[in-house]
Design brief:
216 residues, Glucose Oxidase, domain 1, 9-stranded mixed β-sheet, 13% helix
Length: 216
């Protein structure tokens, strides 16, 4: 039997943001229980909030943005789940794990286990991050790789921010690998068959919330 699950978190006022920011607001503006003719809400948020996508424009004024990707780009038939127990503030290199990843992988999911800290200060203050070298390794190993996604809040470790900026550029600009941060991997099976991604369509943006559906 084919089953589908979300790999994205629902947005909420409690959604953790990078650096401990709190500029996300979802408020009800019309309420039928108070006599209004409909229920309506107001949403205010940064575009890099919750489960979200980084485009190359995020770290380059000349980088590709949302308009540069057609609908076909967002369907993946060769995803791979890599289980990896990340430590606080760790810079992940993938040197030992790279040969485990199939060469035809088009979407790599790194299941780090760090999601268990979501909702605590540790989730954004002590998150692991990816090394710049890991982007080069992935591109050499997986020529068809389009996206890496994971369950921690950012590719940048908050305690290693200068290195994180280098890593973002390595992934997004030099190796053309998009990044999805803060995925919901709580119900993730060992492996999946297909992935469907639906970024919020914002013109020429550097990043956007994204809904991900996995089929297994």
């Amino acid at each position: 039997m084919i089953t589908k699950i979300y790999l994205s978190h629902f947005l909420a006022n409690q959604t953790p943001l990078y650096g401990g920011a709190s500029d996300l607001e979802i408020a009800q503006t019309r309420n039928m229980t108070q006599g209004d003719t409909s229920n309506n809400s107001y949403l205010k948020m940064p575009n890099h909030a919750g489960t979200h996508l980084d485009y190359p424009r995020h770290f380059s004024s000349e980088g590709k943005h949302s308009d540069d990707y057609n609908a076909d780009f967002w369907f993946f038939e060769n995803p791979f789940v890599l289980a990896y127990q990340a430590q606080e503030n760790e810079i992940i290199t993938l040197k030992k794990e790279i040969n485990i990843i199939p060469q035809n992988t088009d979407f790599l999911i790194l299941n780090s286990g760090f999601q268990k800290y979501r909702g605590t200060r540790k989730f954004w203050n002590n998150n692991p991050g990816m090394s710049p070298e890991s982007a080069d390794l992935l591109r050499q190993r997986c020529p068809n790789l389009r996206i890496i996604g994971f369950d921690f809040i950012s590719l940048t470790s908050y305690q290693n921010r200068p290195l994180g900026r280098v890593s973002h550029k390595k992934y997004l600009i030099e190796n053309d690998i998009l990044i999805i941060e803060d995925m919901d991997l709580s119900q993730l099976p060992d492996q999946i068959q297909k992935l469907y991604c639906f970024p919020l369509l914002i013109r020429k943006t550097d990043g956007a919330p994204i809904t991900i559906i996995a089929e297994y």
